[in-house]
Amino acid sequence: MDQIPMHLGVSHFSTPAVAVEGLQEALLQNDTFYGPTEGTMSLRQAVAKRYLEEDGIPLPESQVLITAGAKHAIHLYLQSLLQPQDQVVMLAPYWFAFPDLISLSGGELVSIPANPQEGYALPLEALKAAITPQTKLLILSNPGNPTGKVYTQEELQKVAHLLEEHPNLHVLSDEIYDGLQYETPPFSMLRFEHLRDRISVVNGFSKSFAMSGWRVGYLIAPFEILERATALQLKTISGVSPLTQAAAVQAMEHRQQIWQSFKEDLAPKRQRVQEALAQIPALSYTTPDAGYYFTLDVSACLQEMNSNSLYKTVEEWASGLKNQVGLEVLPATNMGMPGAVRMSFALPDHILESALLRLKAFVI
Amino acid sequence: MDQIPMHLGVSHFSTPAVAVEGLQEALLQNDTFYGPTEGTMSLRQAVAKRYLEEDGIPLPESQVLITAGAKHAIHLYLQSLLQPQDQVVMLAPYWFAFPDLISLSGGELVSIPANPQEGYALPLEALKAAITPQTKLLILSNPGNPTGKVYTQEELQKVAHLLEEHPNLHVLSDEIYDGLQYETPPFSMLRFEHLRDRISVVNGFSKSFAMSGWRVGYLIAPFEILERATALQLKTISGVSPLTQAAAVQAMEHRQQIWQSFKEDLAPKRQRVQEALAQIPALSYTTPDAGYYFTLDVSACLQEMNSNSLYKTVEEWASGLKNQVGLEVLPATNMGMPGAVRMSFALPDHILESALLRLKAFVI
């Protein structure tokens, strides 16, 4: 049977034409030589302009480092901040790449589960209890990956209070799914200006601009950290291609129309998945506020809760789903949420319909 | 006065049209999504084909990792090979980025000077004396940067013997200026097939394909090292853009005509620089076998040897050159050759002529 890839972290959208035109213009101008390590001035300015226009935050372009994708931005940041044995607190489920990135920089992950029954609301008390003198960093994805949770301003205010109470604590806010929210736009952590010496943001073009193959991301960080990150970028990769950055500039300048068109496609799909899941009571889920994933709790389909089940673990369940009905989803075990899977709905309509039929046939 | 940039590690050539066409074709095919961490199959195959056709080396494409430039390939390699306190032997002068890359991976640089009076010939006895049980790696640039030295097959045979005598010693051969030799093509270290479990090659598209802004390089390494390098690439940058790789494929396929056209431009320029330097006896130099740099020993222009000189150090001399006649060259102090500078001649003819006049006026 053909396989439907609902496990991928990439949408079915092609890169917007305006971005390709940005590249073509750069080629016409022969912009094929090494660029600055920090990134091109035009992309750093476009990023700063975005935060000014969307969030009302005056941000000097000198505080923006362009990186080889958002993962690379996180890597440079963690290498520049962490010392061995520093503790890093994250809310689970989290993006699966974080644990390796943290341990590569010598940090120790402390995972705090957020409750799906409460819509993955910020678990303030658990967070407070987890923060010790060894805690150097809190990583927050907003919108969440895989949860699609958009934190309210009130929740983020609580995070800001945590920073006020713990003067050595930093926050890295991963905002790479911003723009793809269905209702309230996410509130960037950068808005807490009085804490800007300890607040950093990572973002990029792979998700909300459908530019995963262009490898452009960025880091906004306090100057001291940014300088170290820039020095490390210089030592290890020199810098990012000015050609792909020229494409990213145009994407950023046209972000509102790009986000609008993506959401017009994704919103009815999110609705369709909800309707289909409502008919599969064994799978519990939370409707994402943003992005294109559902996180499904499949524990009611495993042997521990269902003695008729053939599957002991979520990995076995996902293998069964793949082998029997050709549907690929991503077990969330390494996202800190055993018993759950991440399922993307960023697929063409007819494929999504087939996927939902297959899921229902497999589970019921 | 206008500044003439002879300090840069980049030529005046634009990226070849065939490479740009490779990118255009990939855009038409919508190849804008994440590619494989290892690199695209077509680029890995094109690299393998190059080594088969140029060097007669059968190389499985699975032994090729595509990286975000050659510097990144070196970084991934050193991170995958070195343990803290491992010694790394290099012949000086060497590429200025190596010391930082080595120390970032915990290695200790042991620098062995090669003698310009002997044309930077391989100093075998000094090398032998430098290799201890702590020596993990010998790094060789062939063609040399900044020297432009192409090692003879006999010299490389001696390196192979060193490996035979020291069963824990590895070699990294930096071959990024290959293709730009004026006479005998460099002999790739990969030809020593019986030592392939300890021989690695780094190469890329920035120099001999004029694609510095595309950020594509590659590492050819023993499988065990390559696996670690690939895992680290996955953790830190996911992979390289399939778009820029598509351009690199076409460049590689058309390498002979590209190299030919670059050398037809560079060879008379090398000749002109030689003629001009012959009239400036205070600057001693060796004519490069490959590439587009002259390494000039300027110590006869410094105070220690010339009491009339205004300049104590090569940095002061280079500043004087820049400020008085608008000529930028690169002091070789951090290339392990104090008293020398690196000077590129990859410039348009009329600019090169002006540069040579300025140099003569300044020195004489």
Care to give the gist of this entry?
2 copies of one chain form a homodimer. Helices cover 40% and strands 15% of the residues of chain A.
What does this structure look like?
- Chains A, B: Keywords: Aminotransferase, Pyridoxal phosphate, Transferase.
- Chains A, B: Its EC number is 2.6.1.-.
- Chains A, B: This is Aminotransferase.
- Chains A, B: It comes from Nibribacter ruber.
- Chains A, B: Belongs to the class-I pyridoxal-phosphate-dependent aminotransferase family.
- The structure is a homodimer of 364-residue chains.
- In chain A, helix 2 packs parallel to helix 8 and helix 3 runs parallel beside helix 4.
- Chain A folds into 2 domains: 118 residues, Aspartate Aminotransferase, domain 1 (Alpha-Beta Complex); 236 residues, Type I PLP-dependent aspartate aminotransferase-like (Major domain) (Aspartate Aminotransferase, domain 2), CATH 3.40.640.10.
- The mean pLDDT of chain A is 97.
- Helices cover 40% and strands 15% of the residues of chain A.
- Chain A is of the alpha/beta class.
- Chain A is globular and about 60 Å long.
- Chain A contains 11 helices and 13 strands.
- The longest helix of chain A has 24 residues.
- In chain A, the strands form 3 sheets. A 7-stranded mixed β-sheet of chain A has the order 2-8-7-6-5-3-4, sandwiched between helices.
- The interface between A and B is large, with 38 and 38 residues.
